[in-house]
Amino acid sequence: MIKSTPLKLVSLASAGLLLAACGDDAAQNGEDASIGDQLDYTITGIEPGAGITETTEQALNAYDNLGDWELETSSTAGMMGQIDSAIANEEPLVVTGWTPHYKFEMYDLKFLEDPEGIYGDSEFVHTMSRIGFEEEMPEAYAILENFSWEVDDMQQIMLDAQDMEFDEAASDWIEENRDLTDSWVEGIDEVDGQSIELGSFPWDSERASSQVISQILEEHGFDVTVSNVDPSILFQALAQGEVDATVAPWLPTTQGAYLEQYGDDIVDMGVNMEGTVIGLVVPEYMDIDSIEDLTGETE
Predict the structure, then answer these.
(1) 172-198 per-position pLDDT tens digit
(2) N or C: lower Cβ tally within 10 Å for the chain?
(3) Quick one: which of 161, 166, 226, 223 has its CA closest to 200?
(4) Residues forming a β-bridge with 251
(5) What structural domains and CATH numbers belong to the chain?
(6) How far apart, in whole angstroms, are the C-alpha atoms of residue 20 and residue 42?
């Protein structure tokens, strides 16, 4: 059984949020009201500590047409509630989004084009460790170095986990993909109860990856503990040797600032997933395609 330690950071996320009511003009004019009026110039976000939250704040400053808009932080669950409600009523909505995420399996959504490039190109998920980890735990290091999978793999686990626990969804995925997971441990000696602490983030995408790699390590004889913490805490913990390794960081944009701050004291073991994307997301039925289509009050 994989153990989870208490969070080292008190969550800043609110329990959820409701879209602000449309202003009087929007209520009177209905469909004639601008998207901004209908949404009270509010983008629905997730937790304050998430990298996409910080990047979206940068976007608000970079785009002239977003001068009247604000980002309202919530939680991932709160964001999903807003998507479900908006789509059920075919209402406009702008949220911070990323792939892999099961919302793209459940709903017809699209990323808005980002002409200013604030959200960057496709991202990469990296495996990292503390300094000295390879020498002290060579078998674990080798398995983690071999760990590599696809966006669709993670997204499948996230979707399945809506109807079961994440550990069960991960276990099912492992059994269905034994050729791949066996390649991660091929030729590596088993150990007998050696303890290893992995750091991760408290979000569904990272719950999927941490469960998979934890179960593979446990099958190989390791006693695994997973600590789910805020990204800033994880990078600091790696740099200070308080956790052994992680398969969670998104680079170069989402957590790039933390790597710049702590990178000299962390071992970057390389990419374990390609093709992740972050940005602003809207329902497919909305007749806009770019962040520049989000109008401000003065337009």
Answers:
(1) 999 999 999 999 999 999 999 999 999
(2) N
(3) 226
(4) 124
(5) 36-121+280-293 (3.40.190.100), 123-276 (3.10.105.10)
(6) 8
